[in-house]
Design a protein that fits this description.
Distance between the termini: 22 Å
Number of domains: 1
CATH class: Alpha Beta
CATH architecture: 3-Layer(aba) Sandwich
Helix content: 25-40%
Strand order of the largest sheet: 1-2-4-3-5-6-7-8
Largest sheet: 8 strands, mixed
Structural class: alpha/beta
CATH superfamily: Alpha/Beta hydrolase fold, catalytic domain
Order of helices and strands: EEEHEHHEHEEHEH
CATH topology: Rossmann fold
Strand content: 15-25%
Radius of gyration: 16 Å
Length: 226
């Protein structure tokens, strides 16, 4: 994969870092914006992003926490602290600028989906409701339940995946998400028996190879339908 560090420009003239990766072909490709877990763009996330690029996408991964504490961290306490300080509305403006950056790249065909890991799940949900993304997927996405009143604005296809034994996204919240999305024929919400949190993250103790593959296969089919 041809992965590199890039700079995004905001509507206010600021700059922040990100990671861009794509296969070595010249044809315009559909894009995926990845919103990371609280650990940021660490080695796991780069590996996962390169994997999505190998499937035929141009993948853009912003350093979403750049306004609070930029860069990756392996410290869970640090990650949780910057998550707590993250400004949701400002973050959505930054995500909108990231989407615009990707759509305007000559390597992108104008179709952009979004994939969220953990923390990123809420922002996939909000981007589907507010920003007109073409498809959205999330693995063990947290805090989606805080914005279920916006679900009725979502029209793009969605693929949301949760673990039955996830203490961070309890089944009470998952059931509320299911109820909010009920009636949408282009939405797939899957709960995996006995899976916990971070089932898609290879270096996390909650990683489950079978569940990671099943959820990724579903998301891949979704993005290929854009």
């Amino acid at each position: 994969m041809a992965g590199k560090t890039i700079k995004y420009g905001t509507r206010d003239g600021e700059e922040f870092d990100g990671y861009l990766t794509k296969p070595g072909i010249d044809d315009p490709l559909p894009g995926i914006v990845i919103i990371t877990a609280i650990f940021g763009t660490d080695d796991d996330m780069i590996q996962l992003s390169d994997g999505w690029a190998s499937d035929g996408f141009i993948v853009s991964v912003p350093d979403i926490f750049w306004r609070v504490l930029p860069g990756p961290t392996a410290d869970h306490a640090v990650g949780r602290d910057r998550m707590g300080k993250f400004d949701v509305e400002q973050g959505m403006k930054d995500i909108e600028d990231v989407i615009a950056d990707l759509k305007n790249r000559p390597e992108c065909n104008g179709k952009v989906g979004m994939l969220g890991f953990c923390f990123g799940g809420r922002y996939v949900h909000l981007s589907a409701a507010r920003l007109g993304i073409d498809a959205g997927a999330a693995f063990h996405g947290t805090a989606i339940g805080k914005n279920l009143e916006e679900t009725n604005k979502i029209t793009c296809p969605m693929s949301l995946h949760f673990g039955e034994n996830d203490p961070v996204v309890p089944m009470e919240e998952v059931n509320a998400i299911k109820a909010a999305y009920a009636g949408k024929t282009n939405v797939d919400i899957v709960v995996y028996d006995n899976a916990g949190h971070s089932f898609s993250m290879p270096s996390n103790q909650g990683f489950d190879a079978d569940v990671a593959k099943a959820s990724r296969d579903a998301a891949l089919a979704l993005f290929r339908s854009m």
